[in-house]
């Protein structure tokens, strides 16, 4: 490992071309985050002595303004363990340890906390994360299989009737492709999350870059030209990921806009041949979570996983690690 070279890039310009893999660790997403305000990407890349890339991992630092002290919250989110050369001759855990240690050391005094989620398996990197000062919080994830059965085969007749009724009344979901629809998407998304401080909503530039890129789509659900729901979806390694969503449930309760937008995005993924529909966020890990129960109505599978956290304030990190001890 001493012969390996670890580099952290914050600008895509001048960065060598990286191997293909997860969208969440891609140069495309790095460029999207680089263009958007209040976000800064940190790409960790490891090369051997010959210059061959062995692995890379993207961390995204987010800047959030608050109405209460400390008024500015800076944190780093890592979505998955990165991209690796499986035939490089090095153990995956060793490379992961090197990347995580480098990124943690780089950001230790620059962010309040770091969060790692969406790992490929629950126990991936358990020892490495512990040794780097991270503590796990039990979380739940949900995904729907799309490759064996059609989505219609996994829902109840009651839910199917509700979906059909809304479609018959004129509710329809479209891919955002023009400025008018994009503004309607942004307006609804921000209004829906204005009282949900835990949910970070990027700048419009982020979603515009996502819309114009090759690995994502923005969706809006309309009813008589009124936008009643929206969603942002990205595609990676044969799977579709529902990243952001918003709906006008109270105003258009009879149409169930939350159900329609999730269903139509899932059907789009199925028709395009994606293997799974994965939900990036199904709410906090409480025993009873209405949103999680709502997502499970579509026939998905619930799976226990970990989200890992590390606070830069040592005593806070120790206290939280004790509170969430296993």
Your description of this structure?
This protein has 326 residues and is an alpha+beta fold. The chain is built from 9 helices and 13 strands. It has helices spanning 27-35, 92-107, 126-131, 157-168, 179-193, 204-212, 257-271, 290-296, 314-323; strands at 5-9, 39-47, 53-65, 72-79, 83-84, 113-117, 135-145, 172-175, 216-223, 226-236, 239-247, 276-279, 301-311. Strands 1, 2, 3, 4, 5, 6, 7, 8, 9, 10, 11, 12 and 13 form a 13-stranded mixed sheet that branches. α1 (27-35) packs antiparallel against α6 (204-212). The two termini are 32 Å apart.
Give me a quick take on this structure.
By secondary structure, the protein is an alpha+beta fold. The chain has helices at 27-35, 92-107, 126-131, 157-168, 179-193, 204-212, 257-271, 290-296, 314-323, and strands at 5-9, 39-47, 53-65, 72-79, 83-84, 113-117, 135-145, 172-175, 216-223, 226-236, 239-247, 276-279, 301-311. The longest helix has 16 residues, at 92-107.
Which helices and strands, and how do they pair?
Elements lengths: L4 E5 L17 H9 L3 E9 L5 E13 L6 E8 L3 E2 L7 H16 L5 E5 L8 H6 L3 E11 L11 H12 L3 E4 L3 H15 L10 H9 L3 E8 L2 E11 L2 E9 L9 H15 L4 E4 L10 H7 L4 E11 L2 H10 L3
Parallel strand pairs: 4-6, 11-12
Antiparallel strand pairs: 1-2, 2-3, 3-4, 3-5, 6-13, 7-12, 7-13, 8-9, 9-10, 10-11
Helix pairs in contact: 1-6
The global form is: globular
What is the helix content? Answer: 25-40%
How many DSSP E strands?
Answer: 13
Instruction: Estimate the strand proportion.
Output: 25-35%
Order of helices and strands: EHEEEEHEHEHEHHEEEHEHEH
Structural class: alpha+beta
* Sheet with the most strands, sense and barrel status: 13 strands, mixed
* Intertermini distance: 32 Å
Radius of gyration, in angstroms, nearest whole number:
20 Å
Runs in which pLDDT lies below 50 for 5 or more consecutive residues are none
Number of helices: 9
Instruction: Please state the average pLDDT score.
Output: 94
